[in-house]
Amino acid sequence: MPYCAQNIKTSFFTILFVFLFTVCLPVSAHCAELSRYGGTLILSSTSDPKSFNDITAKESSTRSVTGYIFEGLTTMNAVTTQIEPALAERWDVSPDGHIWTFYLRPGVKWNDGQPFTADDVVFTFNDLIYNDEIASSARDIFTIEKQIFKVEKINDLTVKFTLPVKFAPFLNALGQSILPKHKLAQSVKEKKFNFTWGIDTAPTEIVGTGPFKLASYRPGERFVLTRNPLYWKKALNGESLPYLDRIIYIITQNQDTAMLKFIDGEVDYISLRGSEYPLIKPLEKKGNFTVFDSGPDFGSSFIVFNQNTSLNSKTQKPFVDPIKSKWFLDINFRRAVAHAIDKAKMIEILMNGLGYPQDSDMNKSAGFFYNPHVNVYDYDLVKAKKILADSGYVDRNGDGWIEDQDGHTVEFNLATNSGNNERVQIASIIRRDLQSIGMKVNFTALEFNTLVTKLNATFDWDAIVLGLTGGIEPHFGKNVWHSTGGLHLWFPSQKMPATAWEKRVDEIFDQGVQELDPNKRKVLYDEFQVIISRELPLVYTVLNSNLYAIRNKFGNLKPTSFGGAFHNVEEIYINQ
């Protein structure tokens, strides 16, 4: 009997196992897929966002947040660099290239549940970008020879763009974020949009169509983005995206603090400086992360001198001391500075040899449009001093500092942002280099948003060490390079080009954007890069290798040199 009882018990569990295996196998596979949902990506930032307004944003600290919340009609595939549909599912173009019709993706909702329609697209362009009372850098990109695009609603899901001329990077440019009319129209009507969606705005008021939405923000500490459950995009297997529950940005005092948090496992990703590579690389296995090197950074690093000759409308006095303005406007002054900067030493000391000298706006990471044949300024203090002496800058009284032709000591203030230690070190090296040719330089590190305010609002600065993001399409730098551009750093928003070379750069950008033949466009943008290297509105320094380290816990990670580590963040999940 015991034998029979044991046999019955064994048979029962055998049957139960077979039943569960055969019936639940599909469920188990489905459960495995569902397990992709959840988890947190923890990142760091050395600066607080200045606002959550993607239209008025000019700094990366804001865009680091808004990039997750807002989307455009198109997007660029960071792997192939091809343009793909986003909020628009398809489009048509007329034979002459002037009329583009976009068919919006049906069923898309803003993260507050309101439907996304053509009204939002028309509002974004006509009421925001093309509104002269709104400080939008996008207006520079979507204006050709002072002509704007006509944007019309055909029906709720169809928008027509009529272009005054052919516009080569049009589809790429339509990655421009679209903002919700139902949330922002009143602020435009009341002329308050420039101050809308500031950092004191309730997170629920920040409404986008992107994969994540703002959940909370504590200045100086962190901001949190959570999954948008209404997001329209699906995975190839039909699953709703995104997979992650949240993204947390921890705001650190500086890059060194961020690095320590990465080593301690508190953050999942860190952008590396070359000097940190020997420290981090040996820890890969123990720290369960991988270090990537994808070539030269897409950005730029430079020292810029204030060449703004305008008057302050309130005081009727020049923004820049006329004595200093005379130096900064002198091309020989800037060329002497270029020869005095020891780029090789910067790369050796600050980047552990993992860096690249930069000589003009674009670098080899830009690919097709990069021009390697530009003016190069070798490090040569003798040449720098001769250029200065030939232009009348000499030490007349033997105090160690050079004076100008009128006997004024060449002394000015140099600033950079305090949260970026490497940039502070670059500025310190530049200060040392310039003092070695007799310039008296007073260096200060300022909070980033204070620095941005000086650049685009108060204009009360002498020289700044800074950097800009970059890309593969030259025209998207128009807001920097066109004389009317709001980010024309050395002298922004000019009514007329201040110099002949700036006039020529304006012409190149106006012509280049209309030329559909890539090879002819390249000829124009090659000339632009030569002009910039010759006239030195920005005196370039060095570029980092694009180094970063990522925890080995993420699935669907597809890092590229163009898109970085998390360009496909909505598809990324935590490995179980």
Written account of the structure:
The chain has about 575 residues and is an alpha+beta fold. It folds into three domains: about 40-50 and about 195-295 and about 545-575, Periplasmic binding protein-like II (D-Maltodextrin-Binding Protein, domain 2, 3-Layer(aba) Sandwich), CATH 3.40.190.10; about 70-185, Alpha-Beta Complex (Dipeptide-binding Protein, domain 1); about 300-545, Dipeptide-binding Protein, domain 3 (Roll). About 30% of the residues lie in helices and about 20% in strands. The strands form seven sheets. A five-stranded mixed sheet has the order 18-17-19-15-20. Helix 3 runs parallel beside helix 6. Mean pLDDT is about 90; it is low at about 1-35.
What attributes does this structure have?
3 domains, disordered N terminus, five-stranded mixed sheet, Dipeptide-binding Protein, domain 1, 576 residues, alpha+beta, Dipeptide-binding Protein, domain 3, D-Maltodextrin-Binding Protein, domain 2
Quick gist of this model?
With 576 residues, the chain is of the alpha+beta class. The protein contains 18 helices and 23 strands.
| Oligomerization | single chain
What is the CATH topology classification name of the largest domain? Dipeptide-binding Protein, domain 3
Mean pLDDT score, rounded?
A: 90
CATH architecture of the largest domain: Roll
Number of strands: 23
Helical/strand content category: alpha+beta
**Estimated radius of gyration:** 27 Å
Number of DSSP helical runs? 18
Strands of the largest sheet, in order across it? 18-17-19-15-20
Low-confidence residue ranges:
1-33
CATH superfamily of the largest domain: Dipeptide-binding Protein, Domain 3
What gap, in angstroms, lies between the N and C termini? 47 Å
